[in-house]
Amino acid sequence: MPVTALVSRGAKAISPTFEMTKLTKPTSRAAGMAAGGEEHEHAHEHAQLCETVTIADGGAEPVAVMDAIMSSIEQAGPGASRGVLLGISADPSVEGYTLHQLDRRMFDLQTRALRLQQREEGAEWGSSGRLRLYTLDADACKQDVRDKLGIVAAQIEADGKELLGAVMFTCSGRTEGFFGEGAFDAKAFAARYVAASLIGMYAGGEIGPKAAADAPPSRATQVGDASLQGFTAVYGLFIVPKRTVTPLDLAFSDAGAVASAYAHMRLQPAAVASAAAAAKVAAAQAEKAAGRRSVAELAEALRSLTAGRLKRLMGRLGIEFVTGLEKSEYVEQIAKHEEADEALREDEA
């Protein structure tokens, strides 16, 4: 059964949207060095550098990308206390912003420019590229989960499908200490999908398609591009076509006709043979029960057996032989077994 992924990591914007204005190719030395003079382990993945940005649709002069980021963090003040995430997008209206934990190694040593990872199929970053800073926020996380679950519910209904159930893996940081209430991600699912089952767990890192901020409704669910992330709630949704119940034509008969049909069926050779076999089995069971000794009678017979024979009987009955017990304890275990009488008769024979 195919699984549809819903990944939520609500984040609150703490900066204006920045437009990439100066994009360059890294030099061979710059490609291998990060801010601080450290060798960058993913240098080969970076195809371009963003040196300057300007506020989108703001008409301001371009400024160095690092200066714009630092200024925004300073202006956010306590609003950035939960950490800063850098949102990068080739076109926010289509894909939203892919969020990255802000790290000095993301910047080039020589130019103080932002390293941009290689885009799919070798496409280059252009003037539509945007940057925006975000921070984790409880209210934003709650709203993102509710919005995405609602979008998916509406799409399921529009497609004539139904949700059988889901699995959920949510970050161990998304608890009462963050939300102010326990198990919010699970509760949000249960509130939206009353009839669907959910099973899940907390995790220290979640695998799923990359979380995006300010993404359009079309990105509420995703496929592929899976990666290990943090502070996300990842739902695996089992969505299937809705079953159509076709009404059946019913024919009704009176009680006499039903009784006549049943009597006729009971006279068929197969029914007669089945009834005879059932009666034979019942008679054999009754005969066997009638000749079965009681627990007390079995215990009396077992007391006269040697330890070796008792051990052999226990093995035949599937009773574990535990060393160190009194003989009377072995006898009691065997005597209470429902097949003890038959096993003892076979041993006596």
Word description of this protein:
With 349 residues, the chain is an alpha+beta fold. The chain contains 12 helices and 15 strands. The strands form 3 sheets. Strands 2, 3, 4, 5, 6, 7, 8, 9 and 13 form a 9-stranded antiparallel β-sheet that branches. The chain has a 4-stranded mixed β-sheet with strand order 1-15-10-11, covered by helices on one side. Helix 9 packs antiparallel against helix 11 (327-335) and helix 10 (307-317) runs parallel beside helix 11 (327-335). The longest helix is centred in the C-terminal third of the chain and has 22 residues, at 269-290. The protein is elongated and about 105 Å long.
Overall pLDDT: 84
Number of alpha- plus pi-helical segments: 12
Number of domains: 3
Q: Could you say which structural class the secondary elements and strand pairing correspond to?
A: alpha+beta
Sequence stretches where pLDDT stays below 50 over 5 or more residues: 39-44
Q: What is the radius of gyration?
A: 36 Å
Helix content: 25-40%
Main sheet: strands, sense, barrel: 9 strands, antiparallel
**Beta-strand fraction estimate:** 15-25%
Distance between the termini: 57 Å
Number of strands: 15
Shape: elongated
H/E element sequence? EEEHEEHEHEEEHEHHEEEEEHHHHHH
